Amino acid sequence: MTHPLVPSDRVEAAPVYSRDGAKIGTIERLMLEKATGTVAYAVVKSGGFLAERHHYPVPWSALKYNVARRAYEMDLTVEDLRSGPSELDGETFDWGDRSRTYRHPQYWTV
Amino acid sequence: MTHPLVPSDRVEAAPVYSRDGAKIGTIERLMLEKATGTVAYAVVKSGGFLAERHHYPVPWSALKYNVARRAYEMDLTVEDLRSGPSELDGETFDWGDRSRTYRHPQYWTV
C-alpha cells in the first residue's frame, strides 16, 4: 500500500529521470502558492560536478514516483526541458526575494 | 509587493508564533498530497534544547507569514495545539515509510 502523503523534505533531493532513462538531475525545491498551499511547480536541478547547472520548473503532475527506483520519472526528455524556461546556475537570482517577480511562468507546462 | 510563491525550503525551519506571542517552535516539514501536490498540513516542531519535542500537524491556512518578523503566526495558542493530535519526539515513527498509515488525520483542524 502506498501512502497518499509525502514529506516535502523527502521530495527535495530526490533524483529525476527522463523518459529515455537518463538522469536529468535532482529536485531542488518546490515552489508553493502561498494562498492555497499548492505546488505551483518543482525546481529540477540538472548538471553534474563540472557541468553547467540549469534549474527547470516542472509541474508536479509531470513527476511520477517510482518506488523501486526511489526516484521521480518524467515522460519528457532533457531536450524537452531545454526547450522550456530555465534558470542558469551562477545567476544572482534570489529565490527568497519576494520583491522580484519570478521570471518562470507560474504554471509552466511542457 | 509580496510574491505569490514561496520555496518549500524557505518554509521549512521558519519560526512559528502563537496568538499570544509565544514561540511555538519551527516548521519541520510539509506533508504533501501526492495526487494533487497540495499541502495536507505542515508539521510544527515544538520544544527547546532540553524540552520534550512535540510534532503538531497544522493546516496551511492556519499559518500566516509576518514579513517583518520573518516568521509564521497562528491564531492559536500552544494549549490549542496540545488539545489536538501530536507525535512525540523519540517515537519510532518513520515519516518516509509509506507502508504505514499516518496516524494524524489528513486534514487536521483545530
Give your account of this protein's structure.
The structure is a homodimer of 110-residue chains. With 110 residues, the first copy, chain A, is mainly beta. A seven-stranded mixed beta sheet of chain A has the order 6-7-2-3-4-5-8. The termini of chain A are far apart. At the A-B interface, strand 1, helix 1, strand 3 and strand 4 of A face strand 1, helix 1, strand 3 and strand 4 of B. Strand 1 of chain A pairs antiparallel with strand 3 of chain B, so a sheet runs across the interface.
Furnish the topology, listing elements before pairings.
The structure is a homodimer of 110-residue chains.
Chain A: E1 5-7, H1 8-11, E2 15-17, E3 23-33, E4 38-46, E5 54-58, E6 64-66, E7 71-73, H2 78-82, E8 87-88
Parallel strand pairs in A: 2-7
Antiparallel strand pairs in A: 2-3, 3-4, 4-5, 5-8, 6-7
List the total number of helices of chain A: 2
Largest interface: A-B, 38 and 38 residues
Biggest sheet: strand arrangement of chain A: 6-7-2-3-4-5-8
Global geometry of chain A = globular
The residue fraction in helices of chain A comes out at under 10%
Q: Any low-confidence stretches of chain A, pLDDT <50, length ≥5?
A: 100-110
Q: What kind of assembly state do the chains in view correspond to?
A: homodimer
Percent in strands of chain A: 35-45%
Short descriptors:
8 strands; mainly beta; homodimer; seven-stranded mixed sheet; 8% helix; 110 residues
Quick take:
Two copies of one chain form a homodimer. With 110 residues, the first copy, chain A, is mainly beta.
